[in-house]
Structures are given as structure tokens and as C-alpha cells.
Amino acid sequence: MNTPSPSESEVQPAPVAPARPRRIRLFALVAVLALTADIVSKCIVVANISPTDEIRLIGGALVLVQARNSGAAFSLGTGMTVLLTRVALAVALVIVRAASRLRSAGWAVALGLVLGGALGNLVDRFFRAPSPGKGHVVDWITVFPNNHWTFPTFNLADSCITIGGCLAVLMSLRNIDLQGRRGGEAEPERPADG
Questions:
Q1: How confident is the model at residue 21 (pLDDT cuts 50, 70, 90)?
Q2: Taking the model in full, what pTM does it have?
């Protein structure tokens, strides 16, 4: 018994990744939320925790402090403020440029987190003492402190950069590009306007 083949009008086209504007809006929303959370948290810390205070939470496993960092995330690269400011600006520009090709929700979230975190620390670099472009970043979270070893003090911007970076690594390991394609897949054909 022969089964009839579907007519051309019944054949469904391959699914096309969601339009770029939706992914760019997601990217922008994540970046703005990360930046806002970082700025607001730092303002609250500066207003309420003096540099000599320690607020211990969860049995001392989490400590809130106010520290100033002239280096990069987790106090790395201390004393390289001007170079770190330039690198952060370059990274932000590269991310914004890459965002124009976004079709992947995972990449939109990853890049949004990294951009929001980078901008959060750049705000400190430009608007905090000692001077514009050389400002020290407000760090305020440390975990599991003890007498022998203390995890570096960090802030929400550092956390966003780290989480966004881990998500980007995961997307890369899964071989998913900015377009949302797995490595080696051709870009889906778009239906012709008619």
C-alpha cells in the first residue's frame, strides 16, 4: 500500500531561531539588572558598613565588610587599576559588538551578566576615589573566613562576571554559538518573502 507523500504546502519548514531583537532585549535586560543590583548593593554597603565593621551571617560562614580593591575581581592584580580599566572598557565594547549577532538565550544571559558586572566595576573605577579611571572598587562579601585561609572579598559585579563566564564556557563546551547553532550546523534557511 502506497502512502501519499505530503504536498509541498504541507511540508513544515525547519524551525528558525527566535528573532535577534528578542535576544538583544534579554541581553540588555540582564546587563541592566546586574549593573543596577551591583550599584545599589555597593551604595547600601558604603552607607551602612564602616571599613572596620564585620557583619557575620550564617554562623560566620558569610561575612559582609566594606573593602576597597584597586585590582581585578577577587582582589587579583592589585595596583593595576589603569590597565584593568582599559581592559574592562575593551571587553565591554567587544561584548556589545557581539550582541548584535545574538540568537541564543544562553549566550544572551551569559554576555549580559559579564557586561553588567564589568560596567558595575567600571562605575567604581570612574566615580570613586582616588581619581577617575583609577578608582577603587567596593568589595563587600567574603565567605568561609578562618584563621588560615580567607576567600577573597568580592561584590555582585564579580559574581555576575564569574557566573556569566561559567555559562559562556558551558555554552562553548556544548558547542553552541551566538546564533544558537551547534557546531557544524548550517544556519537555518529563511522563508522567502512572497
A1: confident
A2: 0.80
